[in-house]
Amino acid sequence: MKSSRCFQRLTLVLFITVSALAQQPAQAPPSIPSTGFPGLDQYRASRIAVFTDDYGQLARYRAANAALKPPATGENRVVFFGDSITDIWHLDGYFPGKPYINRGIGGQTTQQMLVRFRQDVIDLQPKVVIILAGTNDIAGNTGPMRLEDIEADYASVAELAGSNNIKVIYSSVLPVHNYTERSKDFFAQRSPEKILALNKWLKSYCAAASSSCTYLDYFSAMVDDKGLMKRDLADDGLHPNAAGFKIMAPMAEAAIEKALANAKP
Known about the structure:
It is a single chain. The radius of gyration is 24 Å and the shape is globular. The protein has 13 helices and five strands. The chain is α/β, with parallel strands linked by helices and 265 residues long. It has helices at residues 2-23, 38-46, 48-53, 59-67, 84-87, 91-94, 110-120, 135-139, 147-163, 184-189, 192-208, 218-222, 242-263, and strands at 78-82, 100-104, 128-132, 167-171, 213-216. The protein has a five-stranded parallel beta sheet, with helices on both faces. Helix 7 (110-120) packs parallel to helix 9 (147-163) and helix 9 packs parallel to helix 11 (192-208).
């Protein structure tokens, strides 16, 4: 009889406890501090799983890298490494027959690229890596970034490449424009003054390491008389369209040829 009463009391306690827990308000999902730009806030909130589970997004190219054979004898393999501007660039259409490999990931900053540089560049054994990065750092995609922190990431990537006998081509950060409705948000997030400052630093850095680092000045070829991206080269103000890539491709090819010449014994 006593056992029956104890069981009933225990059941009642458990029922009350579960009921109390069920009535508690659900915890709100983690939030990211506002940047002041609704579009960027929405983007950052959508990336919480990436930031916590696979910050460098190593999973993106892991299988493709595993399937890639080592460079053939005499192959001048080049890795195009960067953010969405690289990611959307169809290299096979602009460089047909070339052993060029695209390892761009949309939205990434230099911090994230540094995390995946060994897997997505060094382990592929290229002779040259052509890097286009920095615009998302300025925007604050992974949080506020000082110019000196972006520059430190640039230097770290270049040093990793150099220690593995990979020649570096550092592309200038592209200009942006606000000539269309689609472009205004991207433009507001990216200070033209910071773009100029980063490009000045990159040019100086490459000049100081001329044999191992080449500066590729897309900016000068794509900027208008107002200091913005030429309107017809980017529909959204940030990402080059076909006309933009048509300008960039021969410039990239010339820089690659120069870097390969420096790579020869």
